[in-house]
Write a sequence for this structure.
């Protein structure tokens, strides 16, 4: 149990376009999901906390108008990178809290975004 | 959230126990210690977590010192597939949810 599916696993887009990444909890309901970004050879950086039915909470320095987060249901959160630029190229990872504390937090497999 | 300190890298022979230390000297009473690992280009994988008691599961054991200022993750019989970056994280409950903030982790290499 406690599987988080992330889609797509990789995407290439042109500068100026927008890209949507989906994060689904497959076998449990997740009222809270988290979005991270990871650059090569670096650790994960928390971008925002996504709460079902309310606005996301962004970490300091993360542009909320650029990284749009929608958590419309208990099993789906989306991250849209708007007007993407090459510097947005990164590995984006979502996570969700499992059905009970025994699962800790489950992470998706990540999305490799390349902006050309 | 409390800051954690881990050695940047470690090596261990296959079949031996891998002991990964973590210092979290500023941890507060309601903060949990989590361990995750990340194999290249994949999402982090949950290993174990604890509050104050030692914990064991099918993957590893977590030893937390009595003062809770440090902990050790033990992989009892390391295999080549255990080569990964291991992250020690302390997290507290904020508005009903715990927020996991990753440090730099320890790159563990298991050698044949």
């Amino acid at each position: 149990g406690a599987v988080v599916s992330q889609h797509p696993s990789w995407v290439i887009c042109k500068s100026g376009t927008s890209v949507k990444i989906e994060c689904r909890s497959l076998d449990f309901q997740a009222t809270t999901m988290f979005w991270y970004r990871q650059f090569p050879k670096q650790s994960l950086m928390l971008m925002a906390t996504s709460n079902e039915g309310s606005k996301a909470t962004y970490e300091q320095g993360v542009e909320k108008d650029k990284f749009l987060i929608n958590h419309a249901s208990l099993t789906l959160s989306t991250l849209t990178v708007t007007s993407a630029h090459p510097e947005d190229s990164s590995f984006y990872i979502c996570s969700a809290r499992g059905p009970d504390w025994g699962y800790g937090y489950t992470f998706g497999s990540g999305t490799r975004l390349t902006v050309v | 959230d409390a800051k954690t300190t881990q050695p940047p890298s470690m090596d261990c022979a296959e079949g031996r126990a891998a002991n990964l230390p973590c210092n979290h000297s500023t941890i507060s009473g309601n903060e949990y210690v989590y361990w995750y690992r990340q194999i290249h280009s994949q999402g982090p994988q949950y290993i174990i977590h604890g509050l104050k008691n030692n914990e064991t599961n099918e993957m590893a054991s977590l030893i937390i010192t009595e003062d809770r200022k440090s902990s050790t993750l033990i992989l009892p019989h390391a295999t080549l597939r255990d080569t990964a970056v291991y992250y020690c994280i302390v997290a507290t409950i904020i508005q009903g949810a715990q927020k996991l903030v990753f440090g730099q982790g320890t790159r563990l290499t298991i050698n044949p």
Summary: The CA atoms of residues 71 and 77 of chain A lie 4 Å apart.
